[in-house]
Amino acid sequence: MKNNKEFRTWLDKMNLTHPLLIAGPCSAETEQQVLDTAHQLKATDTTVFRAGIWKPRTRPGMFEGVGAIGLKWMKRAKEETGLMMATEVANTAHVDLALEHGIDVLWIGARTTVSPFNVQEIAEALRGTDKIVLIKNPVNPDLSLWLGAVERIYKADIKNIGVIHRGFSAYQKTKYRNNPEWQLAIELQNQFPDLPLICDPSHIGGKRDLIFDISQTALDLNYDGLIIETHPDPDNAWSDASQQVTPKRLAQITKELKVRKEIGEGEDYLQKLQKLRTKIDTLDEQLLHMLSERMKISTEIGKVKKSQNVAILQTGRWNEILGKMILEGEQLGLSEEFVLRIFKAVHQESINKQAKILDN
Ligand code: PEP
Ligand code: MN
After folding, report:
1. Read out DSSP for 214-267?
2. Model's pTM, two decimal places?
3. Does domain 267-359 have CATH number 2.60.40.10?
């Protein structure tokens, strides 16, 4: 995907003074709701109107979308407001209908990105299109699967490609509906800087109160745009009611968000940054050396255990260490989540080192 610059060029040509904003209801419900929302969004920074008409619901029996009739409502919304129209497509029939009705942006949902067969079919149905195709991350935190879907679309001679980061399912519940795992999206951005990256704070957060903070983090990480579920009467929405905001609230959110520059300027700024970066580099080096020392001791412990044929893992001791570290970490301003992640990784590496000794 060396030359996927078209969408980036399109974005640049739009000359927006803010990140690209895609907004609209989770689902199209009635013609009136689609038209009302679109007209209200016209007065905001929104460039693209979104609405799902085929809804991939996790459990059957819930509202599964209005179907193709919704495309007619969107066509009318486009004629009346001039907003571009976006909807989710999950199979070739969806693609054909969306193209017939002049949809400008087609997105592939998280439950579809996981399936290479489906993605390939959609890619073939869209072959050579100059429409914008946005690929949501798969539900599971697997960067290759996400990239694989992007590659399938790209190989079908589709150049206006972007990606949407909507978070990842996890067994352990956190405050998010879908954990952001920011590092995965950042890795994708590093590998493909020309691929516009859009954040979906609505599906990451699952709650409207989280949308602002998630959006700000995305902008701080240089994302190119936001897709935010917006409904004239969010509490009574037919799907994803708790995460939708009114167009008025959307306007407030986007007004308060801070867009940061990619690079700063000025002698003073550069000097300050350089000093701090040098400090960080030194500390990182110390951290590496300390970790290496710690692993040497783990190896020694492995030898002692081997001499008595003792198992590697003593769960009691490990839980005690972890509890202590979390408390100490808190006093030092480190979050429980961070301390847990770091020490679980350190512990795993220790186990690997000791296993090598014991199994030899
Ligand atoms: C949606 O955008 O409404 C949707 C179903 O999203 P996802 O595929 O991210 O779950
Ligand atoms: Mn939704």
Report:
1. HHHHHHHTT-SEEEEEB-SSGGG-SS-GGG-B-HHHHHHHHHHPPPPPSS--SH
2. 0.84
3. no
